[in-house]
Inverse folding.
């Protein structure tokens, strides 16, 4: 069962998806559901002896393109509606004991084109308003399937965090006739001390307002709204800068560094969003090699993050890390 329930206090939808309680939970390496299917072995979700990059619909989706009728009736206060959408899994490689950071630039480059294809194809559905591409990496994040993979949630509405970014950037555009994200990028480039790495197409930095000690944002240097706007050179340069940042993360504490990686881009509802700007955000939970930044009372209950570090110092630390 899956449905959307309206929170009238925060004015946002909450997904109720009871079937996800039964999703895959720490399978043994020789029983991985997204490894290639080997002769004489059980058939995985990918019925092939080998593959490059694979995309398929999630067996335990939060949204469903043929969403069922909600289990409970809504009213004016407690609105309820179908949890319609499309959830996909992207498997980066047939190799089980590896990560995206360990892939070659060429392989990550292929992945960028897969992201681009899925954004365009999923966004072409009239009922899809937002295509959200992301990766959860590491058990401390909550990952229960170790094979390297990412996900795409295609929403029938624009999720609240994106709505907030759209609103703030539109206010900024209305007031100053400029892009908020372009001005942030400009300021970071001029200040330099929070920059982690840059190439001709993208800039990676720890933002002035970072909530996590090693939170890195990657902004497109050109004012573009979505991955569908990328040139061939930008696709390659995104692969290169992703490789650098992920390897810096791994080399920082000499461990496979956990993170949440999210891609923010314009909605797919057919409207113009000249105020918006494509970017990626990384949320790594570690604040030192042996300490995790947990979201406790102030973060979860009040919505205010407390960062125990200086963005300028952490950016300098990451800059020095070899990759």
């Amino acid at each position: 069962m899956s449905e959307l329930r309206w929170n009238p206090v925060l004015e946002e939808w909450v997904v109720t998806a009871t079937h996800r309680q039964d999703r895959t939970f720490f399978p043994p390496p020789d029983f991985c559901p997204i490894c290639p299917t080997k002769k004489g072995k059980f058939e995985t979700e990918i019925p092939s002896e080998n593959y490059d990059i694979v995309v398929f619909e999630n067996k335990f989706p939060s949204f469903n393109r043929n969403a069922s009728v909600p289990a409970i009736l809504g009213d004016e206060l407690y609105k309820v509606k179908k949890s319609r959408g499309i959830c996909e899994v992207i498997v980066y490689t047939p190799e089980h004991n590896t990560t995206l950071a360990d892939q070659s630039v060429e392989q990550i480059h292929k992945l960028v084109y897969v992201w681009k294809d899925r954004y365009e194809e999923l966004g072409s559905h009239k009922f899809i308003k937002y295509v959200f591409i992301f990766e959860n990496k590491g058990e401390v994040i909550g990952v229960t399937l170790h094979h390297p993979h990412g996900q795409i949630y295609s929403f029938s509405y624009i999720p609240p965090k994106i709505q907030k970014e759209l609103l703030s950037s539109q206010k900024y555009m209305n007031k100053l006739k400029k892009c908020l994200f372009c001005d942030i990028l400009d300021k970071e480039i001029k200040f330099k001390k929070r920059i982690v790495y840059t190439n001709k197409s993208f800039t990676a930095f720890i933002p002035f307002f970072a909530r996590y000690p090693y939170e890195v944002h990657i902004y497109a240097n050109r004012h573009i709204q979505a991955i569908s706007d990328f040139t061939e050179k930008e696709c390659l340069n995104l692969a290169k800068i992703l490789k650098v940042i992920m390897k810096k993360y791994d080399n920082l504490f000499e461990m496979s560094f956990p993170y949440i990686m999210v891609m923010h881009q314009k909605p797919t509802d057919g409207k113009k969003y000249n105020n918006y700007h494509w970017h990626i955000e990384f949320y790594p939970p570690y604040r030192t090699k042996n300490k995790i930044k947990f979201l406790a009372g102030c973060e979860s209950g009040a919505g205010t993050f407390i960062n125990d570090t200086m963005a300028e110092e952490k950016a300098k630390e990451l800059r020095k890390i070899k990759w």
